[in-house]
Design goal:
alpha+beta; 31 helices; 51% helix
Length: 934
């Protein structure tokens, strides 16, 4: 069956069709793909059916044919069937595009079919006329059945079916001819005839499939063509409808809209020849205006008439030029309205203007908005002009619109000259450190719609090439649709502030006298060094260098000479160090040196060179030569260093040790320098204590001494305690500074302060109190201190019997004669005495007979745990019994709870003192407390 071009012909070309080709050729590729798709689709059933027939044939011939060739044939069948099944599986998994454009799928399938045809053709080799007729029939039946059934599996593609049929027929045909028997020849020719019949059937089957596929594609093309045609018609209908709507809108515009169409005669006053009905919006009747030949000039405001006349008469002769102008007209009711006049001159054949035609549009609202906007703009510009900060405004493209006076001064640009230029040209920014150009911030603000503020100072390049340090902020100017139509840039000059900040920063980090960094900055650098030691396992060395006997230079030469010496020493030391090393002035005549990545051996060598350099250098001042030396303490910084404070403390201690061992020496800090550390810490407390006394930062507290049982004692008894405030106002407990005062001869000064201020507080009070004051052993044995107390008692008019002095037991017996003399002299005046810490380590109490003691204060180490420790309770009992025997009252210290209080009552102790009884409080609080009690 052959199709011609006349078999398929429609108007238009379907999608995908190529004009000029015979029918079907434009679909050939798609049909071939679908034929291939069909054979792959039918392949699984064909493979299973063929394999089933092969198994049945093998089973039928098993008893009459040699097994080995039969099994070989069946194995080949299984192998080629498996390979073809794998090919079908791969085809199914391939993408549709790959299946449609890759011709190899059909080629691979054809190759598989050829192998299958050869395999089935080999079945003819088993035909043997010596076999029973039923077995010969079985072979022929299976063979011909497969050939016939293959039509439905392979004939969708004729090359595939021929590829199967040809080898399947030729091999058995040749085998039968070789046998050269009449029956064999007859069967062979019958097979050829059978093959021919099958081929004809397959051809017809193939043509039917082809025609079916072709018809489907033709129908698809027709549907596509109809869809395109329908879409084109619908689009044309929409366009016509839209045109009609627009035309209708234009008609309504000229009849009912705001536009007034006119035609005026080109005569004096412009008589109205035609005007649309929309002129009623101005209070006029269109028919009346035309019928009366009213003059349009009479409708124009007199002050605008001359400008309108000039605009209309300025049209060149012989040319049709439109003229658009804004002006004001007077409504019929006297109201003035702004209009836009769009005029076209109408000329005769000689080029003479006979009429003017055009339209009027009421623009009063827009004009009023423009006027208001102009006034707002003028007010804004006046405001911006008066602002101290520099202001620049831009349009939506980042082009400059306005600079106020301050902006002109800072940028060096005139506002008129800068107008229309890109902002980056006028406002050119650079990074302060790298001096690289900065991306224009105005564009960032326009893009994001957000305000931007400079996080730090920037450099502004001025028009004259100079530079300023500035800070800026940029804000977008937002429209009603939340879209920016420009930005406002505000900036100010911080050059002077920056210079001052740098100067302040420099001064904050440097010593004013020597120019070296100061202690605070040095500690920051030490912190960095400590971090690198931990993270990089580095080793650094820290020096504390102290000039020896520098005070003599100030005293003998002058402070100016001392300052000059410090500057010279600083320059000398700085010149002797590496660039990576750091030197600072950390005290009056003390320098700190940080040697980075330096071993202990190298540090000792550098320190020795420094000492030699200082010792051998002569400093001139006022005609005299100053010789000096220094002591250096070294501490090493490594990954095990605890903190900057500890490292500096170690270097300070080492420097102190160097000075202590003879000056002009080097000492390296070791962890065994504990006694040195203690002495150094005490010396620091002595220094702080002196400052506290001078700055009046000592203060008095009190703690009540109460009767153990009710009815004991006639008046309030309390002990005065001393405290110290630190530089920040915090309280420092006495155990931290009193031992240092004791060891470094400061304790008597503290006692004098306590007595003076205690007496001053007690002076003139009406209440009779018993005030206990602690005295040190050194004060008790100082004759001058005895005279001081006697004078203060008289000065403040205090009754001696109101004062009780507490002296530690060890201090009293250390110099018993002097202590006894001191106590007897004051006892004669009426003062009372208490032995503090009584019972701590003494085996004889015979000295009590020689001292005028009124109270025994039982050592708190016995009292603290007496409720749980029987030995301590026995010691308290023994001391109390001693007091009873010799007639002295007892006071228990460190009473912490009610159980201890009860034990004391059971024993018979007279008084108790401790946190369980009363907490220490500021002395000035007692007066308010007494008033509340009263």
């Amino acid at each position: 069956m052959t199709m011609t071009h006349s078999d398929f012909s429609i108007t238009g070309t379907p999608a995908g069709q190529v004009q000029g080709l015979p029918d079907g050729e434009q679909y050939a590729s798609a049909i071939r793909h679908e034929q291939t798709e069909l054979v792959f689709t039918q392949a699984p059933v064909a493979l299973l059916a063929a394999l089933a027939v092969a198994v049945l044939v093998t089973a039928g011939l098993w008893h009459v044919t040699a097994h080995q060739p039969l099994l070989v044939w069946l194995g080949i069948q299984f192998a080629q069937t498996a390979l073809r099944a794998l090919l079908v599986l791969l085809y199914r998994r391939a993408s549709p595009v790959s299946r449609s454009v890759n011709p190899r799928w059909a080629q691979w399938y054809l190759a598989g079919v050829l192998v299958s045809g050869v395999t089935w053709g080999c079945l003819g080799l088993f035909i043997d006329f010596t076999l029973p007729i039923e077995y010969q029939f079985l072979i022929l039946l299976g063979f011909t059945g497969v050939l016939g059934g293959a039509i439905f599996s392979y004939a969708a593609s004729m090359p595939v079916y021929i590829g199967f049929l040809f080898p399947a027929i030729i091999i058995p045909f040749q085998s039968l001819l070789v046998q050269a028997t009449q029956a064999a020849n007859a069967i062979g020719f019958m097979l050829i005839v059978y093959a021919g019949a099958l081929l004809l059937i397959a051809y017809n089957y193939n043509r039917n499939i082809y025609q079916s596929l072709l018809l489907r594609h033709e129908n698809t093309g027709l549907v596509r063509h109809m869809s395109v045609t329908n879409a084109s018609l619908e689009n044309e209908i929409r366009e016509r409808q839209q045109a009609e709507n627009e035309l209708s809108g234009e008609r309504r515009l000229f009849t009912n809209g705001p536009v007034t169409v006119f035609r005026w005669c080109a005569a004096k006053g412009w008589p109205i020849a035609y005007v649309s009905k929309t002129v009623t919006q101005f209070g006029f009747d269109d028919d009346e205006l035309v019928n009366k030949q009213s003059l349009f000039a009479d409708m124009i405001l007199k002050s605008d008439l001359k400008r309108v006349e000039q605009a209309k008469t300025s049209v060149p002769e012989g040319r049709h030029v439109t003229a658009g102008i804004d002006y004001r007209i007077i409504r019929n009711d006297g109201e003035i309205r702004w209009v836009y006049d769009y005029t076209i001159p109408v000329r005769d054949k000689n080029g003479k203007i006979t009429h003017y035609a055009g339209y009027l549009l009421d623009i009063t609202d827009r004009k009023q908005a423009e006027i208001d906007l102009l006034h707002e703009k003028e007010r804004a510009q006046v405001t911006l002009h008066s602002i101290v900060d520099a202001v620049i405004t831009t349009d939506a493209n980042g082009q400059v619109e306005y600079l106020n006076q301050a902006a002109e001064k800072l940028t060096g640009w005139d506002s008129d000259n800068a107008h229309g230029l890109p902002l980056s040209r006028v406002f050119s920014l650079f990074d302060d450190e790298s001096r690289s150009s900065i991306v224009e911030p105005a564009l960032q603000s326009l893009k994001s719609g957000k305000s931007l503020t400079s996080a730090y100072d920037h450099i502004l390049g001025r028009n004259d090439g100079s530079h300023l340090s500035i800070q800026y902020s940029i804000s977008p100017i937002m429209s009603t649709h939340d879209a920016p139509f420009g930005v406002v840039l505000v900036f100010h000059d911080v050059t002077e502030n920056r210079s001052m900040a740098r100067q302040i920063s420099y001064q904050a980090a440097h010593d004013q006298l020597t120019g070296l960094i100061n202690r605070a900055e040095f500690e920051i650098r030490l912190e960095y060094a400590l971090e690198s030691a931990r993270s990089e396992n580095a080793h650094h060395a820290l020096f504390f260098l102290d000039l020896d006997q520098f005070k003599l230079v100030n005293d003998t030469c002058s402070h100016a000479a001392g300052d000059a010496l410090l500057r010279d020493i600083a320059g000398l030391l700085k010149a002797s160090l590496r660039d990576s090393d750091i030197i600072a002035r950390v005290g009056g005549d003390e320098f700190g040196v940080l040697l980075k990545n330096c071993s202990l051996q190298k540090a000792e060598e550098i320190a020795g060179n420094m000492l030699s350099l200082i010792k051998t250098t002569r400093f001139e001042s006022g005609g005299s030569t100053i010789e000096t030396s220094a002591s250096i303490g070294i501490s090493m910084i490594d990954s095990g260093s605890a903190s900057v404070t500890e490292v500096m403390k170690a270097a300070d201690l080492a420097c102190y040790a160097a000075k202590d061992t003879g000056r002009s020496t080097i000492h390296i800090f070791h962890s065994s320098d504990t006694e040195l550390a203690r002495r150094h810490e005490e010396m620091q407390w002595v220094s702080r204590l002196k400052e506290a006394i001078n700055d009046d930062r000592l203060l008095l507290h009190y703690q009540d001494i109460v009767p153990v049982t009710q009815g004991t004692g006639a008046r309030r008894h309390f002990e005065v305690l001393v405290r110290m405030r630190d530089e920040e106002g915090g309280l420092i407990k006495p155990n931290l500074f009193l031992s240092a005062a004791e060891n470094y001869d400061m304790i008597t000064a503290v006692d004098r302060w306590v007595v003076e201020h205690s007496f001053s507080w007690y002076s003139g009070r009406k209440e009779r109190l018993l005030m206990s004051i602690n005295l040190s052993g050194k004060s008790v044995t100082d004759p001058a201190f005895l005279e001081f107390i006697i004078n203060k008692l008289a000065e403040y008019r205090i009754k001696a019997e109101d004062i009780c002095f507490e002296i530690t037991e060890t201090a009293a017996i250390a110099k018993l004669d002097l202590a006894a003399s001191f106590m007897h002299e004051l006892h004669k005046l009426g003062c009372r005495f208490a032995l503090d810490d009584f019972g701590s380590g003494l085996s004889s109490f015979a000295y009590l007979r020689s001292l005028p003691v009124n109270y025994l204060k039982i050592d708190g180490s016995f009292v603290r745990n007496m409720d749980t420790d029987q030995v301590n309770a026995a010691m308290v009992n023994a001391i109390n019994q001693l007091g009873v025997v010799i007639g002295i009252e007892t006071i228990a210290e460190f009473v912490e709870n009610d159980d201890i209080m009860q034990k004391l009552a059971d024993i018979g102790v007279d008084y108790a003192q401790g946190h369980g009884v009363s907490l220490p409080k500021p002395l000035e609080d007692m007066e308010g407390e007494m008033h509340q009690t009263a």
